[in-house]
Every structure is written in C-alpha cells, then in structure tokens.
C-alpha cells in the first residue's frame, strides 16, 4: 500500500510540473502568435504595394505587368487570409491554455492549503491502523487467565502467611502464660512476707524500766511549764 503522505507530496510535485509545462506552452503560443500577426500585417502591406504597382503599370500602358502585379497582390492577400485563420486558431489555443493554467493554479493553491490537513489525516489513519492491528494481535483471554492464576497464587500465599502468623501467636501466648506463672509465684512470696511483717509490728512491745526520780522530775517540769 502506498504511503499517503508520499502520494500527496508526489501529487503536488506533478501538479507543479504540469503548471510549468502549461506556462511554457502558453509562452510559446504567444510568441508564435506575435510572429503570425507580423507576417499577416506584412502580407497585407505587400498586397497593397502590388495593387499600387498594378495601377502604375496600367497608367503606363503595361497591361501585362499590371496583370502580374495583381497576381502577386492576390497571393499576398491569400497569405494574409491564411495567417489570419492561423491566428484565430492560435488565439483559441492561447485561451484554452490560459484557462487551464488558471484552473491548475487554483487547484495547486487549494492542494497546498489542504496539504498539511491531508498529511495529518493520513498520519492519524496510519496510527489508528497500527493500533487496531496491535489490539487484534493481543490475546485478551489468555491475559485474563494469567491474571486469574496470579490472583489465586497470591491468595494462597496470603493464606499461608496468616496460618504461620497464627502459629507464632500461639507460641507467644504459651510463653506469656509461663512467665505470668513465674511472676505470680514471686508476688505471692512477697505478699506472704508483707503479712509477716505486719503481724510482727502489731504485737505489744515491753515497756522500758521506769526510775521514780526521773518520773518526779518530769512532773515538776510539767507543772512549771503549766504554771510559771
């Protein structure tokens, strides 16, 4: 399949080349028309001159020369007529070439204005085609099946991890209970010791030995304090 972008560029090149050819042909026809017009005018002038010569020959009694001059005049008139017909054809050709040249210029200008748009559309279409081909080559069902298998595998790994975590948690609980049992024994011992301490502190203590003299001195000091 041809590349649309290359085809557009080639079309533009061909149209530009055709325009150059039409312009060249128009220029050649215009130059030819000018030459024919000069030849026609010259034939008419020559015919007029031969007519004057025929008149002069008759005035001098040279009928034979007058006849010959009229023959030459007629030849020039026929040549002028033929050239005039050629000029008419050339004029028609020039008009056709000029019309073709104008139409081609309009088409080239339109194509040049739309060239970027056409190229952009061609590139977009090419990209869309590639995307569609790529999507068509992708096996969606296989991809989904692979994802499902991966999902199942992940779920199995998660379940295994949870089971392992449960076993670790159970071991930790047993260990915690063992330490609590040990700590409980220590607390009980400390509680028993505290009870024994309280019991010993609540027992009545034996009074110290009392001296009568000391007691009398203390009474005297109290009286002096109360009644100075």
Automatic annotation (TrEMBL):
Region listing for Disordered, in residue ranges: 184-228
Keywords: Coiled coil
Bias (Basic and acidic residues): 217-228
InterPro entries per record: PspA_VIPP1
Pfam families reported in the protein's UniProt record: PspA_IM30 (PF04012)
Keyword Transcription: no
Coiled coil: 66-121
Family, as annotated: Belongs to the PspA/Vipp/IM30 family.
Descriptive protein name: Phage shock protein A
Annotated source species: Galdieria sulphuraria
């Amino acid at each position: 399949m041809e590349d649309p972008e290359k085809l557009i560029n080639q079309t533009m090149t061909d149209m530009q080349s055709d325009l150059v050819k039409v312009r060249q042909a128009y220029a050649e026809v215009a130059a030819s028309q000018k030459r024919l017009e000069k030849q026609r005018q010259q034939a008419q002038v020559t015919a007029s001159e031969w007519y004057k010569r025929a008149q002069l020959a008759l005035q001098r009694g040279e009928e034979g020369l007058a006849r010959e001059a009229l023959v030459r005049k007629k030849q020039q008139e026929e040549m002028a007529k033929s050239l005039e017909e050629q000029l008419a054809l050339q004029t028609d050709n020039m008009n056709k070439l000029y019309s073709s040249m104008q139409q081609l210029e309009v088409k080239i200008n339109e194509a040049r204005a739309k060239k970027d748009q056409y190229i952009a559309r061609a590139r977009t279409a090419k990209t869309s085609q590639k995307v569609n081909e790529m999507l068509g080559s992708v096996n969606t069902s296989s991809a989904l099946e692979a994802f499902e298998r991966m999902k199942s595998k992940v779920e199995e790994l998660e379940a295994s991890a949870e089971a392992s975590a449960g076993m670790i948690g159970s071991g930790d609980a047993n260990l915690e209970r063992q330490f609590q049992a040990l700590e409980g024994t220590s607390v009980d011992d400390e509680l028993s010791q505290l009870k024994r301490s309280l019991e010993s502190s609540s027992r009545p203590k034996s009074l110290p030995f009392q001296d009568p003299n000391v007691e009398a001195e203390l009474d005297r000091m109290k009286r002096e304090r109360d009644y100075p």
